[in-house]
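Structure tokens please, single chain.
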Amino acid sequence: MRLAAAIGLVLLACFLAPQPRLKCQVTGTTKDVQSVSSPYSAEESGKVSSSLSSRESDLRSALNASPNSPEVAYELALVLRQEGKARKSLDMYTRAAGYRKPTTEELRSVALDYVLLNDYDDAIHWLEIAIQMDPKDTGVLYSLGRCYYTKNRFPDAARMYAEVLAIQPHDLKAEENLGLVYDATNEPAKAEAALRTAVGWADANGKDEWPFLDLGGFLLDHNRTTEAVEPLRTATRIKPECAVCHEKLGRALVAEHDLTGGLEALQTATRLEPGNPRTHYELGRALRQAGQVEKAKQELAISQKLYTTHSQE
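Here you go.
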């Protein structure tokens, strides 16, 4: 992290929380922005659109006209985060904090910048400050749960999701992620119950594939492939461009001896995500099972090459 930004964030921490236990230790990271495969990745990963670019331009003009405006600075920081410009967003949040104290939602956005930078320790730091400001903010509780989960702090994650559900008893994402925590801590009965509850609350004709993907993936991992097929089909229907949805559906169909359907799904997965060694590996296995030996060798060779490349990065 650039020195100026680091100093600015330290000052922001002192401004927010003068108590010694809340002082910020800026860890910094040189990693580029990475997309995170999780139910909340869409919140974190900026998808630059013409409307966002236009909004950024308008806000920069407004900030030039009113350089000490906290509202303009905070809104510009948010837009920069939504565009995936995490470092520039953090710089702008630091500037904005010099004009007024950030709200809990603005601190959550700071944390999501750090998620974009794959720096979960600093993300957790800011979310923990935000939740002290407002212990009932379900958005902050949920995001903190996701960060704890990513850091394998499963009991802490479960506690966050339970708090969300105590405030909003039918919060689908909290219930779904609670199921993932139970699965990670080897509590399959609780995991299945939570994941099925989430699917029961979800809209099979909606836009969120994750509840169906997570339930299908859970059933697939527990060798219950017959049950896994339906939720995985739903996930691929909701989001046809989801490579992992097609990959898991393909594996389930192959296990159910539907080689034609399995191959079609796995081929779709490799087309959608050609750089993923796992999809090529699964396709190679399915092709070999279907007796297409030469094609199987080609896919397995691609998989091996990709795995080697990734291990060297």
